[in-house]
Amino acid sequence: MADRGASAQSVPDDWPAHPDPILVLNRMGTFDWDLDAGLFHMDAQAYEVFDILPEEFDGRPDSLAIRVPRPEGSRLDTVVSRAIKDGSENYGAYFRIRRRDGTPRWTHTQGYIRRDETGRPRRIIGIVRDATQELEESEARSLRAAQDAAFRQQTNVVQIITAALSHARSVQDVIDVLKDTHGVRNIGAASLVMGLVEAGRIRLVAEGPEGSFVPGTRITRIDEPYPMGEVVRSLSPRFIESPEEFADGYPILWPHITDLNIISAAYLPLIAQARPIGAMGLLYNDRRGFSTEERAVLVALGSSIAQSLQRAMLYEQEKDLAQGLQQAMLPRTIPSVRGADVAVRYRAGSAAGSLGRDIGGDWYDLIPLPGGRVGAVIGDVQGHDTHAAAVMGQLRIVLRAYAAEGHTPATVMARASVFLHELDTDRFATCLYAEADLTTGVVQVVRAGHIDPLIRHQDGGCRRVTVHGGLPLGLSAEFGRLEYPVTAIELEPAQTLLLCTDGLVEQPGADLDDGMDLLTTLIASGPDDVRELADRLIEMAEVRGGDDDVALLLLRRRGPDSVQTGGRLQQHVAPGDPEALTLARHMIRAAVCAWGARARADEIELVADELITNALMHTEGSAIVTLRVLSGSERRLRVEIEDSSSALPRRREAGENGVSGRGLLLVDRLTDVWGVEARGGGKCVWCEFLMPNAPDSPDRTGPGWHS
What does the alpha-carbon distance between residue 667 and residue 690 come to, in Å, rounded to a whole number? Predict the structure, then answer.
């Protein structure tokens, strides 16, 4: 501290200033510095602050250099000079002194500059005090604040990781979350290593830094001297705070990671339901030691990761079980069908966060039937769990059995509904059953609460087919309604029938009709091949995602060159069932055209209609209509109408005003030959028509509509 005075005789009259008693009580010393005289007066407390004796000080500022180191004195002089030049009234500064025993002491001084009327500084009166404890406390507060900020940051990172882990549905999802930019790197770790406990061993599922794999550690026994094995055995975390501790504690492991610049690590047991399921290691390359708060945060993170891992492992196990059960319930193979190309697809839903939701009750089936017919089924049992899959499997089997027994589509659906109602389950199901005659192209469709089918035309156009429907299966018996109307549609050669479940068209918040329109557009722009088209549709479902399953069945009727001529068709017509009678007429017209007898279609349909009407009017049971092509020197189409009455029909002459009696006369005139045969307890009225066209005649085009 430089001497700024010039004469010791020019001190002010009130010099030196007397200290306030309060300052003394607060262990603050005072000084009075006469700038003109260069004298520096201190009170007794100031002597104690500077740790100097009165006899050691001659009253000049530069004599304090024995306690104030030169760098500190220069810095303090700079502060004072700046305050004087700036016109300031006061200044303050912290500086260090060297006590008598050589130890440093932080000191704080504050001076008040007094000037004369011209503004010239004449005198500085100030205080000086020991600031060591103050600065230590301030430093401690700053350190605590920094530690608190770091703790809050780590806690926030743990909360972010925990929130992200709540969406993890697989072990890999958990690992990806931890390796993400918001993961372990945000709590200072350089890398992560993780292993799962399996049959007394630890299988590594996540390595540390790239290229850091330690040979022989892919699968290790729990009792081997590795840190993950140790924390699994002890169920306690292991914090390694220095390279030396790492090398001493794990001499087998340490040589393999010395090049990775790892200087500390935290190994945490992953415990779920009081059972270790794995271990995790966080490796650090920029820190030594872990505070109590940091250890608590890491332990909490390990607990959260363990819960997420257990949930993911249970989900994967449930998913494997569900997929196995789903595959067991669906048809193992789809039979080849003469005259048609078939493609089926299934996509499991993806309801995040729900175990077992990767399985549902959606199904498809293809059932070969006699006479060149095939049954196509699509359905959806309520729910997404193993119970829904089990119900689906049973329902699929009984539907196949009812169809194979020869029941009409309406009967098949009604019996399936009763079966589901009596199955002692609270589930219901939607279903659509289409029985297609690939020779004629006639398709009889029955719908139980399901979405309508679609037809793709040869030119690529696509339309939705409106099908009259009944209640979902399992509900109709409860509400006393087993009516399932049959809708007949025509599938022309090269046309494709598409059946699907609502998972393909429904989206949350969107209208079903909009979904059907979008699907129609997609089908129209899709490839002609049914397998490629099925792949396109299921890819669309995958991209869109969604919680619901998707089942899909496409059946494309082959062109005329591939249709097999000949065969046998049969239709049951019950009394009082106008729908069945209409279907029989459609079948007859379509078969006649497809088999090359279009020129006689009107005659054949008129005769068959007359014989069916006679059977229904004059007998008590149903009529069975059978059409077949007879080969030989001449190809003939034979129509047979069976009933349960043994009474033979009689040909009568109708009176002038009679309304009956002309039926058999009409049969006799229009057919080439006809007759009656006894059939068990009933009879069969048959007739035959010569077919003028050869099988390969150009006249054999696809059937047209005629009601």
Answer: 14
